[in-house]
Amino acid sequence: MVDNKTVSSNRVAEQFHSLLSRLVARNALPQELVQNVVEPTMNSDIVPRLWELGVDDRVLAEVISQIFNLAVFNGKVVDRDSMMRSGPDRCPWLIADNVLYVTNPYDRDQIEPLMRPWFC
After folding, report:
1. Is the pLDDT of residue 38 over 50?
2. What is the rounded distance in angstroms from the CA atom of residue 50 to the CA atom of residue 2?
3. Residue 113 DSSP symbol
4. pLDDT over 80 (residue 18)
5. pLDDT digits over 48-105, tens only?
């Protein structure tokens, strides 16, 4: 019998290695470095671990956007009055033109409260 912790750990490893292989294919990480990297134990640690390895933010954003089939923030904001952004979070986020942009889509604990309606 496999416990939930093992399943979760395997899922984190699969997601992390999927990202690593895509980053190697984009020449954002050398294969030699990938072979010795320590896997994160939690989803929320995937993106910070890649930052520790020196992965370029833009390349990482593009790869993650392909995996999740989501748009990358293009820097243009139509309605500046509706814009909100995080403070000094570990993984910053931005709401612009009613779209939530996050730097770490693997951190569900951070994202889920942001997706809840502000007004009930």
Report:
1. yes
2. 28
3. H
4. yes
5. 999 999 999 889 999 999 988 888 888 889 998 888 888 777 778 888 888 888 888 8
Structure tokens at 75: 């820097």
Using DSSP bridges, classify how beta strands 93-96 and 99-102 pair: parallel, antiparallel or unpaired. Answer: antiparallel
State the DSSP code for 45.
G
- Which residues, including other chains, have CB under 8 Å from residue 74's CB and lie 6 or more apart? none
Q: Work out whether the CA dihedral 104, 106, 107, 110 comes out positive or negative.
A: positive
Question: What is d(CA 116, CA 119) in angstroms, rounded to the nearest whole number?
Answer: 9
What is the token pair recorded at 69?
Answer: 């089939």
Residues 6 or more apart whose Cβ sits within 8 Å of residue 68: 105
